[in-house]
What does this fold into?
Amino acid sequence: MSVTPIDHINRFHQSALDQWMGFGQLVADQFEQLARLQIAAGFESTRRALEAGHALAEVRTAEGLLQWQGAHVHPGIEYATEVSREHFDALLASRDVIAEALRQSAANGTHQIQAGLERLAETAPAGFEAFFDALRGSFQAHLNAMEHAERLGEQVDKLTGASALVSQIAAAQTAATRAPARRKVA
It folds into this structure.
């Protein structure tokens, strides 16, 4: 039986701890960005709502109501759409950070398992070669299946990215072709 020196175990744990601390910092940064976006959107939405409320209180005619709608409702919808896009982009970035950390963790875990398997195979009694060959083969099949699932996920990401791009283009075209608000005639 082989004995692992304590300093080797400590280096592994320190490396894993450093990796997870870095991951925690990246996630905290993403949450902070989302919180800042949400707070800024809340302040701006409140400011716009107060401004629209004051303007609505001054409306006295049907034409004035149409002007108010053009000046406050449509820009409010456009602003809400833009804020939603910013939040969506931030969430996608968060997802990418988490996915990359999980990939790195899986790669480190895979390396550790393979190294442990090889150490076991080296110290195993004679006659266990076929067993370890089968174990290596099943482990490789598992890794191949994980790589296939990752490629499938990347294809889904490309499709959803294309869908998001189409949505953004359609929203931009809709905003550009929207009829201008009617002006108040004195």
